[in-house]
């Protein structure tokens, strides 16, 4: 009996050591950033981060405590070095300033760097899309070779990719398609809608789910009653800044733009009233749990004293530490409803894309890129179009209009074009150029609309085909003043010297109207044929089966 008790005690002690070691290998942090916008709306940016030490042993690879097991096993199974996934609804407005996330185009976007040769990476990419489709209850399984591209300039190799759109490193001239034995794959589903069935599995990946912490504020009824919504996750291997050991970062984010007046709230409101949920205590396993309020208006006040106040990108930021004290709610009040609105900081670069031409056979695409800086800016323009929009690369024209109104042709410094293969791959156009100071640059090219089989049309074919957005990537110089840096880039980089800010912006989607067959014609033909056959068959059958007899006059 004593031997059994001794063995049980040793097992309990060993379990405690293992749990302690597991807690040291994985850390979890949560953060909520609240920022009033110039037009009276409010931006809420939720971010949850899990860091896991990489282990080469079999036991370490399959031992999970805080890190989502399904994500870790998917990354291990398909050789994923980096992964970015985003589901977006609505459009980010330039008047709101810099976007808090990299992916702002409506629909679903998946970006992954997969280890291995191109042939093997293509098979792994398809398996990865199917696996993520099941995890997030999305239609990512429709990401195939016909809508997958491998950009070489837009997405550069980064060692600390995150979901903020503010990566440390350069988007410079190094090609990012095949680097270091890995292949970059990028897919986009412009028709993918975001709903609660995507949010539920996303929340289940959190250590505390929505039971405690700032995740308790994630109310689906408020999150999807919004003007802009972006939900996603990113995975990247990096090096821990403290210990120097290799780690795996997994970040989840939710960014929403809400209008308090939609819910009957005035100039004074609390987070609980805005989200219709109570603010719970910090997640017990979180090493950091904070709520940051950006004082973008001088008359903004909070109902509780913040734990610290600092400057981030020229904005005063109040930080509330949920681990130091329990807060029932955090309220924001303004001096007057008609007080001075927050200053609108327009981004350095804006981009919009339009469809030109008319008819169902030919047309064109035109993009307008605005540079608001007083110095040239290097950008990379990426446009991935489906195979049924055949791009004529020789018609590409780039013109720039300076502040004085003078228009001149602009020669791209680099041009990469991958033609499409029918039902095999999309066409990809990457243009690297330097925008003149304070200029409007127009990029246009012609395209031809192809003919589809009648089985390839969607049920609402007359509505048109959704075409994904174009992407413009650029880098803000290191010497930029703090006030002109994106808020989330400065928060991620800590405004450390030598770290530039890489930004990606997305244009609008557009509808492509293709030649559409008359889908009602088979019905009309079948109806007419059946009617004629029925009448003919009835008359002939009546004549063939009727017994004709000659009646005498006396029988009448």
Automatic annotation (TrEMBL):
GO terms for biological process: attachment of GPI anchor to protein. Residues 1-19 form the signal peptide. InterPro entries: PIG-T (IPR007245). It comes from the Eukaryota. The chain crosses the membrane at residues 523-544. Residues 156-183 are annotated as: Disordered. Pfam families: Gpi16 (PF04113). Residues 170-179 have a biased composition (Gly residues). Keywords: Membrane, Signal, Transmembrane, Transmembrane helix. GO terms for cellular component: GPI-anchor transamidase complex. This is Subunit of the glycosylphosphatidylinositol transamidase complex-like protein. The lineage of its organism: Eukaryota, Fungi, Fungi incertae sedis, Zoopagomycota, Kickxellomycotina.
